[in-house]
Amino acid sequence: MMKRDACLRILARHVRDEAVVATYQAAFDWMAIAPRDLNYVSIGAMGIASSHGLGLALGRPDRRVIVLDGDGSLLMNLGSLATIAAAAPRNFAHLVCVNGVYEANGSHPLPAGDRIDFAAIARGAGISNAGTIDTLAEFEAAMPEILRGEGPVFRALRVEAGEPSPQDYAFIHGAQTRRRFKTAFSAR
Predict the structure, then answer these.
(1) pTM
(2) What is the set of domains in the chain, with CATH numbers?
(3) Model confidence over 64-96: pLDDT tens digits?
(4) Residue 21, CA distances (Å) to 34, 94, 124, 135 in order
(5) Which of 31, 38, 75, 119 can pair with 130 through a Cys bridge, CB separation 3.0 to 4.6 Å?
């Protein structure tokens, strides 16, 4: 199992002009590790990161969109996997941090969290390029596929919490944060 922050540090070393849509704890970690204008933070309703990421990918097929989701969040919107499969955006990568708990809500366990195979669910929904990553070495080796492989790409990342990150809700919900993303995402 990987520490989530160590995993995200690997991603940060490779990300260039991709938009990153992050939710809840992954968002706080990502903002601390890789503050950048192309970060889109999706907080406020569990499960919407994949749908927001899909909309962005469809709106800008020339730009890669990477979603950093949580297992609890994805459980709230499993239907998005079928929608993603049907739309088949070639520029879309969905990374799900799997730790078996609703971490943002007090780390309450997910129902059947120890038995859920998110990659199998993604494949069952029609996303053929789906798999599970258990180690940092595997994650590093997967970077070319995540960043440039024909999407949709789905990877379940078996993680545990790393060092705590600041939870700056004012920044996340700030109008300036949204404006910076909109400007950066529209540019090219």
Answers:
(1) 0.92
(2) 2-126+140-186 (3.40.50.970)
(3) 999 999 998 899 899 999 999 999 999 999 999
(4) 12, 9, 24, 22
(5) 119
